[in-house]
Amino acid sequence: MRRISRPSDFVFQVSWEVCNKVGGIYTVLSTQAKSLGQIYKDNLIYIGPDLNPGEENPLFEVDDKIFGDFTEKAAKEGLPVRFGRWAVPGRPLVALVDFRPLFSQKDKIYADMWNWFGVDSLHAYGDYDEACLFALQAGRLIVMLHDQLDNENGGETTAVVQVHEWMSGFALLYVKRHAPYIATVFTTHATSIGRSITTNEKPLYTYFNGYDGDQMAAELNMQSKHSVEKIAALEADCLTTVSEVTDRECLQFFGRSSDVILPNGFEPSFVTKGAGLQTIRHKARKSLLNTYNALAGTNLTDNTLIVSTSGRNDFRCKGFDVFLGSLAKLERNYRLERYVLAVIAVPCWKKQPREDLCLRLKDKPAIKIFDASGLEPLPHPFITHDLYNFDSERIVNTIYNCGLSLSRDSKVHLLFIPSYLDGDDGIINMAYYDFLAGSDYCVYPSYYEPWGYTPLESIAFGIPCLTTNLSGFGQWVNSTVGHTAILSDGVAVIQRDDSNYERATDEIATSIQGVAMLLPDEYSKIRTTAKALSGKALWKDFILNYINAYTLAMKHAANRS
To answer: What is the pLDDT of residue 375?
Structure first.
Protein backbone atom coordinates (compact mmCIF):
# COMPACT_ATOMS: atom_id res chain seq x y z
CA MET A 1 0.00 0.00 0.00
CA ARG A 2 1.23 3.49 -0.86
CA ARG A 3 2.05 5.71 2.11
CA ILE A 4 -0.98 7.73 3.23
CA SER A 5 -0.79 10.50 5.81
CA ARG A 6 -3.29 10.17 8.62
CA PRO A 7 -5.32 13.29 9.44
CA SER A 8 -5.71 12.43 13.15
CA ASP A 9 -3.72 10.65 15.83
CA PHE A 10 -6.48 8.17 16.68
CA VAL A 11 -9.56 6.69 15.04
CA PHE A 12 -12.34 5.06 17.04
CA GLN A 13 -14.85 2.97 15.08
CA VAL A 14 -18.09 2.05 16.84
CA SER A 15 -20.45 -0.68 15.68
CA TRP A 16 -22.77 -3.31 17.14
CA GLU A 17 -21.09 -5.76 14.75
CA VAL A 18 -17.52 -5.45 16.03
CA CYS A 19 -16.56 -9.01 17.02
CA ASN A 20 -20.27 -9.82 16.57
CA LYS A 21 -20.95 -11.63 13.30
CA VAL A 22 -24.57 -10.78 12.54
CA GLY A 23 -24.66 -8.91 9.23
CA GLY A 24 -22.95 -7.09 6.41
CA ILE A 25 -21.34 -4.40 8.56
CA TYR A 26 -19.27 -7.13 10.19
CA THR A 27 -17.83 -7.87 6.75
CA VAL A 28 -17.17 -4.18 6.11
CA LEU A 29 -15.23 -3.67 9.33
CA SER A 30 -13.45 -7.01 9.54
CA THR A 31 -12.15 -6.77 5.96
CA GLN A 32 -11.18 -3.08 6.13
CA ALA A 33 -9.19 -3.49 9.36
CA LYS A 34 -5.94 -4.60 7.73
CA SER A 35 -5.77 -1.68 5.28
CA LEU A 36 -6.85 0.98 7.76
CA GLY A 37 -4.56 -0.55 10.38
CA GLN A 38 -1.57 -0.17 8.07
CA ILE A 39 -2.17 3.58 8.28
CA TYR A 40 -3.11 3.95 11.96
CA LYS A 41 -1.42 0.89 13.55
CA ASP A 42 -2.68 0.48 17.13
CA ASN A 43 -4.12 3.99 17.07
CA LEU A 44 -7.12 2.42 15.33
CA ILE A 45 -9.52 1.11 17.97
CA TYR A 46 -12.75 -0.74 17.19
CA ILE A 47 -15.47 -0.65 19.86
CA GLY A 48 -18.20 -3.27 20.07
CA PRO A 49 -20.66 -4.71 22.60
CA ASP A 50 -19.52 -7.22 25.21
CA LEU A 51 -22.57 -9.46 24.89
CA ASN A 52 -21.20 -12.17 27.19
CA PRO A 53 -18.94 -10.44 29.73
CA GLY A 54 -16.27 -12.70 31.16
CA GLU A 55 -16.89 -15.43 28.58
CA GLU A 56 -14.76 -16.36 25.61
CA ASN A 57 -15.58 -14.94 22.19
CA PRO A 58 -13.94 -16.87 19.32
CA LEU A 59 -13.57 -13.61 17.39
CA PHE A 60 -11.93 -11.73 20.28
CA GLU A 61 -8.52 -12.37 21.84
CA VAL A 62 -8.35 -10.77 25.28
CA ASP A 63 -5.13 -8.93 26.16
CA ASP A 64 -5.11 -7.57 29.72
CA LYS A 65 -1.87 -5.69 29.02
CA ILE A 66 -3.64 -3.23 26.70
CA PHE A 67 -4.66 -0.12 28.66
CA GLY A 68 -4.53 -2.15 31.86
CA ASP A 69 -4.60 0.80 34.27
CA PHE A 70 -7.34 2.49 32.30
CA THR A 71 -9.48 -0.66 32.43
CA GLU A 72 -9.49 -0.58 36.23
CA LYS A 73 -10.29 3.14 36.26
CA ALA A 74 -13.15 2.72 33.77
CA ALA A 75 -14.69 -0.14 35.77
CA LYS A 76 -14.85 2.09 38.83
CA GLU A 77 -16.76 4.62 36.71
CA GLY A 78 -19.38 2.02 35.76
CA LEU A 79 -17.78 1.25 32.41
CA PRO A 80 -16.65 -2.40 32.32
CA VAL A 81 -14.44 -2.89 29.27
CA ARG A 82 -12.20 -5.62 27.88
CA PHE A 83 -9.38 -4.82 25.47
CA GLY A 84 -7.86 -7.25 23.03
CA ARG A 85 -7.49 -8.17 19.36
CA TRP A 86 -10.01 -8.99 16.67
CA ALA A 87 -9.21 -12.38 15.12
CA VAL A 88 -9.26 -11.09 11.52
CA PRO A 89 -6.48 -10.04 9.10
CA GLY A 90 -4.56 -7.17 10.65
CA ARG A 91 -5.61 -8.20 14.18
CA PRO A 92 -6.78 -4.68 15.11
CA LEU A 93 -7.11 -3.43 18.66
CA VAL A 94 -10.65 -3.84 20.03
CA ALA A 95 -12.56 -2.67 23.08
CA LEU A 96 -15.71 -4.57 24.08
CA VAL A 97 -17.93 -2.59 26.47
CA ASP A 98 -20.52 -3.97 28.86
CA PHE A 99 -23.59 -1.74 28.67
CA ARG A 100 -25.71 -3.57 31.26
CA PRO A 101 -24.85 -1.14 34.10
CA LEU A 102 -26.66 1.61 32.18
CA PHE A 103 -30.11 -0.02 32.17
CA SER A 104 -30.92 1.47 35.57
CA GLN A 105 -30.11 4.93 34.14
CA LYS A 106 -32.04 4.46 30.90
CA ASP A 107 -34.77 7.03 31.56
CA LYS A 108 -32.28 9.75 32.49
CA ILE A 109 -30.13 8.94 29.44
CA TYR A 110 -33.12 9.24 27.13
CA ALA A 111 -34.20 12.48 28.83
CA ASP A 112 -30.70 13.91 28.35
CA MET A 113 -30.66 12.98 24.67
CA TRP A 114 -34.04 14.68 24.25
CA ASN A 115 -32.91 17.83 26.04
CA TRP A 116 -29.54 18.01 24.29
CA PHE A 117 -30.46 16.99 20.74
CA GLY A 118 -34.20 16.33 20.51
CA VAL A 119 -33.84 12.55 20.12
CA ASP A 120 -37.28 10.94 20.49
CA SER A 121 -36.98 7.69 22.47
CA LEU A 122 -40.64 7.56 23.52
CA HIS A 123 -41.56 5.06 20.81
CA ALA A 124 -38.62 2.73 21.44
CA TYR A 125 -39.09 -1.03 21.17
CA GLY A 126 -37.17 -4.16 20.24
CA ASP A 127 -33.42 -3.71 20.05
CA TYR A 128 -33.47 0.05 20.63
CA ASP A 129 -32.53 -0.04 24.32
CA GLU A 130 -29.61 -2.42 23.98
CA ALA A 131 -28.20 -0.65 20.93
CA CYS A 132 -28.47 2.86 22.33
CA LEU A 133 -27.10 1.99 25.76
CA PHE A 134 -24.19 0.19 24.12
CA ALA A 135 -23.54 3.26 21.97
CA LEU A 136 -23.66 5.60 24.96
CA GLN A 137 -21.20 3.38 26.83
CA ALA A 138 -18.95 3.45 23.74
CA GLY A 139 -19.16 7.26 23.73
CA ARG A 140 -18.17 7.37 27.39
CA LEU A 141 -15.22 5.09 26.66
CA ILE A 142 -14.03 7.31 23.81
CA VAL A 143 -14.14 10.49 25.87
CA MET A 144 -12.43 8.93 28.89
CA LEU A 145 -9.73 7.18 26.86
CA HIS A 146 -9.07 10.22 24.69
CA ASP A 147 -8.69 12.44 27.75
CA GLN A 148 -6.15 10.03 29.27
CA LEU A 149 -4.19 9.80 26.02
CA ASP A 150 -4.34 13.56 25.65
CA ASN A 151 -2.91 14.08 29.14
CA GLU A 152 -0.12 11.59 28.44
CA ASN A 153 0.75 13.35 25.18
CA GLY A 154 0.79 16.91 26.43
CA GLY A 155 -2.65 18.02 25.29
CA GLU A 156 -2.14 17.65 21.55
CA THR A 157 -3.98 14.38 20.80
CA THR A 158 -6.46 14.48 17.91
CA ALA A 159 -9.10 11.87 17.21
CA VAL A 160 -11.94 10.94 14.89
CA VAL A 161 -14.86 8.77 15.96
CA GLN A 162 -16.74 6.98 13.19
CA VAL A 163 -20.06 5.40 14.14
CA HIS A 164 -22.00 2.97 11.98
CA GLU A 165 -25.79 2.98 11.63
CA TRP A 166 -28.46 4.25 14.03
CA MET A 167 -27.40 1.59 16.53
CA SER A 168 -24.24 3.59 17.26
CA GLY A 169 -25.78 7.06 17.04
CA PHE A 170 -25.74 7.74 20.78
CA ALA A 171 -21.94 7.38 20.76
CA LEU A 172 -21.58 10.25 18.28
CA LEU A 173 -24.04 12.44 20.16
CA TYR A 174 -22.40 11.79 23.54
CA VAL A 175 -18.99 12.68 22.11
CA LYS A 176 -20.39 15.80 20.46
CA ARG A 177 -21.84 16.90 23.80
CA HIS A 178 -18.92 16.07 26.08
CA ALA A 179 -15.85 16.31 23.82
CA PRO A 180 -16.64 18.62 20.88
CA TYR A 181 -12.95 18.75 20.00
CA ILE A 182 -13.20 15.12 18.76
CA ALA A 183 -14.22 14.94 15.09
CA THR A 184 -17.25 12.80 14.25
CA VAL A 185 -18.24 10.74 11.20
CA PHE A 186 -21.64 9.07 10.80
CA THR A 187 -21.93 6.21 8.31
CA THR A 188 -25.32 4.87 7.28
CA HIS A 189 -25.10 1.59 5.41
CA ALA A 190 -28.87 1.55 4.84
CA THR A 191 -31.40 4.06 6.13
CA SER A 192 -33.95 2.69 8.56
CA ILE A 193 -36.78 4.28 6.58
CA GLY A 194 -35.62 3.02 3.19
CA ARG A 195 -35.30 -0.53 4.47
CA SER A 196 -38.60 -0.33 6.34
CA ILE A 197 -40.49 0.92 3.28
CA THR A 198 -39.28 -2.07 1.27
CA THR A 199 -39.86 -4.69 3.96
CA ASN A 200 -43.41 -3.37 4.37
CA GLU A 201 -44.08 -4.09 0.68
CA LYS A 202 -44.32 -0.41 -0.30
CA PRO A 203 -42.93 0.78 -3.66
CA LEU A 204 -39.74 2.65 -2.76
CA TYR A 205 -38.71 3.90 -6.18
CA THR A 206 -41.95 4.87 -7.93
CA TYR A 207 -42.90 7.37 -5.22
CA PHE A 208 -39.42 8.06 -3.86
CA ASN A 209 -39.50 11.84 -4.24
CA GLY A 210 -42.82 12.02 -2.38
CA TYR A 211 -41.67 10.23 0.77
CA ASP A 212 -41.02 12.30 3.90
CA GLY A 213 -38.72 10.61 6.41
CA ASP A 214 -40.46 11.82 9.58
CA GLN A 215 -43.92 11.06 8.21
CA MET A 216 -42.91 7.56 7.12
CA ALA A 217 -41.26 6.94 10.50
CA ALA A 218 -44.60 7.62 12.21
CA GLU A 219 -46.50 5.45 9.72
CA LEU A 220 -44.08 2.54 10.03
CA ASN A 221 -43.60 2.79 13.82
CA MET A 222 -39.94 3.72 13.36
CA GLN A 223 -39.94 7.10 15.14
CA SER A 224 -37.21 6.38 17.68
CA LYS A 225 -34.76 4.62 15.37
CA HIS A 226 -35.26 7.22 12.64
CA SER A 227 -34.90 10.02 15.19
CA VAL A 228 -31.48 8.99 16.47
CA GLU A 229 -30.33 8.12 12.94
CA LYS A 230 -31.41 11.44 11.45
CA ILE A 231 -30.05 13.57 14.29
CA ALA A 232 -26.71 11.75 14.29
CA ALA A 233 -26.51 12.32 10.53
CA LEU A 234 -27.26 16.03 10.91
CA GLU A 235 -24.92 16.52 13.89
CA ALA A 236 -21.93 14.66 12.38
CA ASP A 237 -18.94 16.63 11.17
CA CYS A 238 -18.97 14.35 8.14
CA LEU A 239 -21.90 12.29 6.84
CA THR A 240 -20.99 9.24 4.78
CA THR A 241 -22.72 6.33 3.11
CA VAL A 242 -21.69 3.45 0.87
CA SER A 243 -23.18 4.34 -2.52
CA GLU A 244 -25.05 6.93 -4.54
CA VAL A 245 -28.15 4.76 -4.13
CA THR A 246 -28.19 5.39 -0.36
CA ASP A 247 -26.97 8.96 -0.70
CA ARG A 248 -30.33 9.73 -2.36
CA GLU A 249 -32.03 8.35 0.74
CA CYS A 250 -29.87 10.51 3.02
CA LEU A 251 -31.02 13.65 1.22
CA GLN A 252 -34.65 12.53 1.05
CA PHE A 253 -35.02 11.21 4.61
CA PHE A 254 -32.45 13.29 6.57
CA GLY A 255 -32.38 16.48 4.51
CA ARG A 256 -28.60 16.21 4.11
CA SER A 257 -26.50 14.72 1.34
CA SER A 258 -23.45 12.65 2.17
CA ASP A 259 -20.14 14.48 2.27
CA VAL A 260 -18.11 11.45 1.19
CA ILE A 261 -19.12 8.13 -0.42
CA LEU A 262 -17.38 5.12 1.17
CA PRO A 263 -17.73 2.14 -1.20
CA ASN A 264 -17.05 -1.18 0.47
CA GLY A 265 -13.89 -3.00 -0.52
CA PHE A 266 -12.63 -6.51 -0.04
CA GLU A 267 -9.50 -7.91 1.60
CA PRO A 268 -7.93 -10.54 -0.70
CA SER A 269 -6.24 -12.39 2.15
CA PHE A 270 -9.67 -13.88 2.95
CA VAL A 271 -9.44 -15.89 -0.29
CA THR A 272 -7.51 -19.17 -0.29
CA LYS A 273 -5.08 -19.31 -3.20
CA GLY A 274 -4.19 -21.90 -5.85
CA ALA A 275 -4.55 -25.60 -5.18
CA GLY A 276 -5.94 -24.93 -1.71
CA LEU A 277 -8.95 -23.17 -3.21
CA GLN A 278 -9.54 -26.04 -5.63
CA THR A 279 -9.51 -28.49 -2.73
CA ILE A 280 -12.08 -26.38 -0.86
CA ARG A 281 -14.18 -26.09 -4.02
CA HIS A 282 -14.28 -29.87 -4.57
CA LYS A 283 -15.15 -30.47 -0.92
CA ALA A 284 -17.96 -27.89 -1.02
CA ARG A 285 -19.46 -29.29 -4.20
CA LYS A 286 -19.37 -32.82 -2.83
CA SER A 287 -21.12 -31.70 0.36
CA LEU A 288 -23.86 -29.81 -1.49
CA LEU A 289 -24.49 -32.57 -4.03
CA ASN A 290 -24.47 -35.31 -1.41
CA THR A 291 -26.90 -33.35 0.74
CA TYR A 292 -29.32 -32.78 -2.10
CA ASN A 293 -29.07 -36.35 -3.41
CA ALA A 294 -29.85 -37.68 0.07
CA LEU A 295 -32.87 -35.38 0.34
CA ALA A 296 -34.36 -35.95 -3.09
CA GLY A 297 -33.26 -39.47 -4.00
CA THR A 298 -31.26 -38.28 -7.00
CA ASN A 299 -27.85 -38.86 -8.53
CA LEU A 300 -26.62 -35.39 -9.41
CA THR A 301 -22.95 -35.57 -10.39
CA ASP A 302 -20.13 -33.05 -10.38
CA ASN A 303 -21.20 -31.94 -13.86
CA THR A 304 -24.20 -30.24 -12.21
CA LEU A 305 -24.30 -26.45 -12.51
CA ILE A 306 -24.48 -25.12 -8.94
CA VAL A 307 -26.17 -21.71 -8.76
CA SER A 308 -26.37 -20.08 -5.34
CA THR A 309 -27.87 -17.08 -3.62
CA SER A 310 -27.50 -15.97 -0.01
CA GLY A 311 -27.86 -13.10 2.41
CA ARG A 312 -29.97 -12.07 5.36
CA ASN A 313 -33.60 -13.17 5.43
CA ASP A 314 -34.98 -9.99 3.88
CA PHE A 315 -37.29 -11.72 1.43
CA ARG A 316 -38.14 -8.82 -0.84
CA CYS A 317 -34.99 -6.73 -0.38
CA LYS A 318 -32.71 -9.60 -1.39
CA GLY A 319 -34.95 -10.63 -4.29
CA PHE A 320 -35.58 -14.22 -3.20
CA ASP A 321 -39.03 -13.99 -4.77
CA VAL A 322 -37.45 -13.09 -8.12
CA PHE A 323 -34.83 -15.83 -7.82
CA LEU A 324 -37.42 -18.52 -7.21
CA GLY A 325 -39.65 -17.18 -9.97
CA SER A 326 -36.74 -17.36 -12.40
CA LEU A 327 -36.08 -21.01 -11.46
CA ALA A 328 -39.71 -21.89 -12.21
CA LYS A 329 -39.40 -20.27 -15.63
CA LEU A 330 -36.06 -21.98 -16.21
CA GLU A 331 -37.65 -25.36 -15.53
CA ARG A 332 -40.79 -24.65 -17.55
CA ASN A 333 -39.58 -22.67 -20.57
CA TYR A 334 -35.89 -23.36 -21.18
CA ARG A 335 -34.02 -26.32 -22.56
CA LEU A 336 -31.10 -27.41 -20.38
CA GLU A 337 -28.35 -29.87 -21.29
CA ARG A 338 -27.03 -29.91 -17.71
CA TYR A 339 -28.71 -30.37 -14.37
CA VAL A 340 -28.98 -27.21 -12.29
CA LEU A 341 -28.85 -27.24 -8.50
CA ALA A 342 -30.01 -23.90 -7.13
CA VAL A 343 -28.92 -23.34 -3.53
CA ILE A 344 -30.48 -20.79 -1.18
CA ALA A 345 -28.38 -20.22 1.95
CA VAL A 346 -30.34 -17.89 4.24
CA PRO A 347 -30.38 -18.00 8.06
CA CYS A 348 -33.92 -18.62 9.34
CA TRP A 349 -35.59 -19.59 12.61
CA LYS A 350 -34.21 -23.10 12.59
CA LYS A 351 -34.42 -25.87 15.18
CA GLN A 352 -31.81 -28.48 14.31
CA PRO A 353 -30.55 -30.55 11.36
CA ARG A 354 -33.16 -32.93 10.00
CA GLU A 355 -32.77 -36.34 11.65
CA ASP A 356 -33.90 -38.25 8.56
CA LEU A 357 -31.35 -36.39 6.43
CA CYS A 358 -28.58 -36.98 8.97
CA LEU A 359 -29.29 -40.71 8.89
CA ARG A 360 -28.98 -40.82 5.11
CA LEU A 361 -25.76 -38.84 5.15
CA LYS A 362 -24.20 -40.80 8.01
CA ASP A 363 -22.77 -43.57 5.84
CA LYS A 364 -22.15 -41.58 2.66
CA PRO A 365 -18.98 -42.48 0.70
CA ALA A 366 -15.86 -40.67 1.83
CA ILE A 367 -14.71 -39.73 -1.68
CA LYS A 368 -17.42 -40.25 -4.28
CA ILE A 369 -20.58 -38.20 -4.62
CA PHE A 370 -23.48 -40.05 -3.04
CA ASP A 371 -25.80 -41.86 -5.50
CA ALA A 372 -29.22 -41.90 -3.83
CA SER A 373 -31.26 -42.73 -6.92
CA GLY A 374 -32.48 -45.95 -5.30
CA LEU A 375 -34.05 -44.07 -2.38
CA GLU A 376 -37.41 -42.38 -2.16
CA PRO A 377 -37.40 -38.59 -1.68
CA LEU A 378 -37.74 -37.42 1.91
CA PRO A 379 -40.70 -35.21 2.85
CA HIS A 380 -40.04 -31.60 1.78
CA PRO A 381 -37.03 -32.78 -0.25
CA PHE A 382 -35.31 -29.43 -0.47
CA ILE A 383 -34.68 -28.22 3.12
CA THR A 384 -31.77 -29.26 5.35
CA HIS A 385 -32.98 -28.17 8.80
CA ASP A 386 -36.22 -28.22 10.75
CA LEU A 387 -37.81 -24.81 11.25
CA TYR A 388 -39.90 -23.50 14.11
CA ASN A 389 -42.04 -21.60 11.61
CA PHE A 390 -42.01 -23.92 8.60
CA ASP A 391 -45.65 -23.17 7.65
CA SER A 392 -45.17 -19.39 7.75
CA GLU A 393 -41.61 -19.03 6.40
CA ARG A 394 -41.94 -16.97 3.21
CA ILE A 395 -39.13 -18.74 1.38
CA VAL A 396 -40.76 -22.13 2.01
CA ASN A 397 -44.19 -20.89 0.96
CA THR A 398 -42.78 -19.37 -2.21
CA ILE A 399 -40.91 -22.58 -3.05
CA TYR A 400 -44.24 -24.41 -2.99
CA ASN A 401 -46.18 -21.71 -4.81
CA CYS A 402 -43.79 -20.34 -7.45
CA GLY A 403 -44.39 -23.14 -9.96
CA LEU A 404 -41.37 -25.35 -9.34
CA SER A 405 -42.23 -29.03 -9.73
CA LEU A 406 -39.73 -30.20 -7.08
CA SER A 407 -39.51 -33.42 -9.09
CA ARG A 408 -36.39 -35.53 -9.01
CA ASP A 409 -36.85 -36.01 -12.76
CA SER A 410 -36.54 -32.27 -13.44
CA LYS A 411 -33.42 -30.57 -14.78
CA VAL A 412 -33.81 -27.86 -12.13
CA HIS A 413 -33.36 -28.77 -8.47
CA LEU A 414 -33.46 -26.70 -5.29
CA LEU A 415 -31.59 -26.93 -1.98
CA PHE A 416 -32.56 -24.61 0.89
CA ILE A 417 -30.08 -24.25 3.77
CA PRO A 418 -31.85 -22.15 6.43
CA SER A 419 -28.78 -21.92 8.66
CA TYR A 420 -25.94 -19.53 9.29
CA LEU A 421 -22.88 -21.12 7.69
CA ASP A 422 -20.26 -21.02 10.42
CA GLY A 423 -18.78 -24.48 9.83
CA ASP A 424 -20.95 -26.14 12.47
CA ASP A 425 -24.52 -26.24 11.13
CA GLY A 426 -24.74 -30.04 11.37
CA ILE A 427 -25.29 -30.73 7.66
CA ILE A 428 -23.05 -28.69 5.33
CA ASN A 429 -20.47 -27.97 8.04
CA MET A 430 -18.55 -25.38 6.06
CA ALA A 431 -17.87 -21.71 6.67
CA TYR A 432 -19.64 -19.38 4.25
CA TYR A 433 -16.61 -18.65 2.07
CA ASP A 434 -15.90 -22.38 1.71
CA PHE A 435 -19.53 -22.94 0.73
CA LEU A 436 -19.31 -20.07 -1.75
CA ALA A 437 -16.29 -21.62 -3.45
CA GLY A 438 -18.44 -24.57 -4.52
CA SER A 439 -20.71 -22.43 -6.69
CA ASP A 440 -20.47 -22.03 -10.47
CA TYR A 441 -22.68 -18.96 -10.66
CA CYS A 442 -24.22 -16.66 -8.04
CA VAL A 443 -27.46 -14.71 -8.40
CA TYR A 444 -28.31 -11.72 -6.19
CA PRO A 445 -31.38 -10.01 -7.70
CA SER A 446 -31.71 -7.39 -4.97
CA TYR A 447 -34.51 -4.86 -4.81
CA TYR A 448 -32.95 -2.91 -1.94
CA GLU A 449 -29.17 -3.17 -1.56
CA PRO A 450 -27.18 -0.09 -0.51
CA TRP A 451 -23.93 -1.83 -1.43
CA GLY A 452 -24.01 -5.60 -1.92
CA TYR A 453 -21.16 -7.59 -0.42
CA THR A 454 -22.32 -10.98 -1.63
CA PRO A 455 -21.63 -10.31 -5.33
CA LEU A 456 -18.27 -8.73 -4.50
CA GLU A 457 -17.34 -11.77 -2.41
CA SER A 458 -18.44 -13.99 -5.28
CA ILE A 459 -16.13 -12.46 -7.87
CA ALA A 460 -13.30 -12.28 -5.31
CA PHE A 461 -13.46 -16.09 -5.42
CA GLY A 462 -13.53 -16.00 -9.22
CA ILE A 463 -17.22 -16.91 -9.45
CA PRO A 464 -19.24 -14.91 -12.00
CA CYS A 465 -22.47 -13.49 -10.70
CA LEU A 466 -25.60 -11.48 -11.41
CA THR A 467 -26.79 -8.44 -9.48
CA THR A 468 -29.03 -5.46 -10.19
CA ASN A 469 -28.87 -1.76 -10.93
CA LEU A 470 -30.58 -1.11 -7.58
CA SER A 471 -27.50 -2.27 -5.66
CA GLY A 472 -24.60 0.04 -4.97
CA PHE A 473 -22.20 -2.65 -6.15
CA GLY A 474 -24.13 -3.09 -9.39
CA GLN A 475 -23.89 0.64 -10.04
CA TRP A 476 -20.16 0.54 -9.28
CA VAL A 477 -19.69 -2.33 -11.76
CA ASN A 478 -21.54 -0.46 -14.51
CA SER A 479 -19.44 2.63 -13.86
CA THR A 480 -16.21 0.63 -13.81
CA VAL A 481 -16.80 -1.28 -17.06
CA GLY A 482 -18.36 1.74 -18.77
CA HIS A 483 -21.68 0.17 -19.75
CA THR A 484 -24.48 -1.99 -18.39
CA ALA A 485 -22.46 -5.04 -17.44
CA ILE A 486 -23.13 -8.44 -18.98
CA LEU A 487 -21.94 -11.95 -18.13
CA SER A 488 -18.73 -11.63 -20.14
CA ASP A 489 -17.73 -8.77 -17.81
CA GLY A 490 -17.73 -11.24 -14.90
CA VAL A 491 -20.84 -9.62 -13.41
CA ALA A 492 -24.20 -9.30 -15.15
CA VAL A 493 -26.22 -6.29 -13.99
CA ILE A 494 -29.93 -6.47 -14.76
CA GLN A 495 -32.52 -3.72 -14.40
CA ARG A 496 -35.01 -3.86 -11.51
CA ASP A 497 -37.79 -1.50 -10.51
CA ASP A 498 -41.15 -1.61 -8.77
CA SER A 499 -42.99 -3.28 -11.63
CA ASN A 500 -40.66 -5.41 -13.80
CA TYR A 501 -40.86 -8.76 -11.98
CA GLU A 502 -41.60 -10.71 -15.19
CA ARG A 503 -38.75 -9.16 -17.12
CA ALA A 504 -36.30 -9.70 -14.26
CA THR A 505 -37.21 -13.38 -13.87
CA ASP A 506 -36.89 -13.90 -17.63
CA GLU A 507 -33.43 -12.30 -17.66
CA ILE A 508 -32.20 -14.39 -14.75
CA ALA A 509 -33.49 -17.63 -16.28
CA THR A 510 -31.82 -16.74 -19.60
CA SER A 511 -28.59 -15.92 -17.77
CA ILE A 512 -28.51 -19.26 -15.92
CA GLN A 513 -29.19 -21.12 -19.15
CA GLY A 514 -26.35 -19.17 -20.77
CA VAL A 515 -23.89 -20.21 -18.07
CA ALA A 516 -25.02 -23.83 -18.38
CA MET A 517 -24.24 -23.75 -22.11
CA LEU A 518 -20.71 -22.38 -21.76
CA LEU A 519 -17.80 -24.52 -22.87
CA PRO A 520 -15.11 -25.08 -20.23
CA ASP A 521 -12.70 -22.61 -21.87
CA GLU A 522 -15.43 -19.97 -22.16
CA TYR A 523 -16.41 -20.38 -18.53
CA SER A 524 -12.78 -20.25 -17.40
CA LYS A 525 -12.30 -16.97 -19.24
CA ILE A 526 -15.32 -15.42 -17.51
CA ARG A 527 -14.04 -16.60 -14.13
CA THR A 528 -10.72 -14.89 -14.84
CA THR A 529 -12.53 -11.69 -15.83
CA ALA A 530 -14.62 -11.79 -12.65
CA LYS A 531 -11.55 -12.25 -10.49
CA ALA A 532 -9.79 -9.34 -12.25
CA LEU A 533 -12.80 -7.08 -11.67
CA SER A 534 -12.69 -7.81 -7.95
CA GLY A 535 -9.11 -6.53 -7.98
CA LYS A 536 -10.50 -3.06 -8.66
CA ALA A 537 -12.56 -3.11 -5.46
CA LEU A 538 -9.90 -3.73 -2.83
CA TRP A 539 -9.65 -1.95 0.49
CA LYS A 540 -6.09 -0.86 -0.24
CA ASP A 541 -7.60 1.50 -2.84
CA PHE A 542 -10.99 2.30 -1.29
CA ILE A 543 -9.51 3.13 2.13
CA LEU A 544 -8.45 6.54 0.80
CA ASN A 545 -12.13 7.53 0.88
CA TYR A 546 -12.09 6.97 4.65
CA ILE A 547 -9.04 9.21 4.97
CA ASN A 548 -10.85 11.90 2.99
CA ALA A 549 -13.83 11.61 5.33
CA TYR A 550 -11.60 11.87 8.40
CA THR A 551 -9.81 14.89 6.94
CA LEU A 552 -13.09 16.69 6.32
CA ALA A 553 -14.38 15.82 9.79
CA MET A 554 -11.18 17.12 11.39
CA LYS A 555 -11.53 20.39 9.46
CA HIS A 556 -15.11 20.89 10.65
CA ALA A 557 -14.23 19.98 14.24
CA ALA A 558 -11.37 22.47 14.22
CA ASN A 559 -13.69 25.21 12.99
CA ARG A 560 -16.20 24.34 15.71
CA SER A 561 -13.57 24.40 18.45
So the answer is: 94
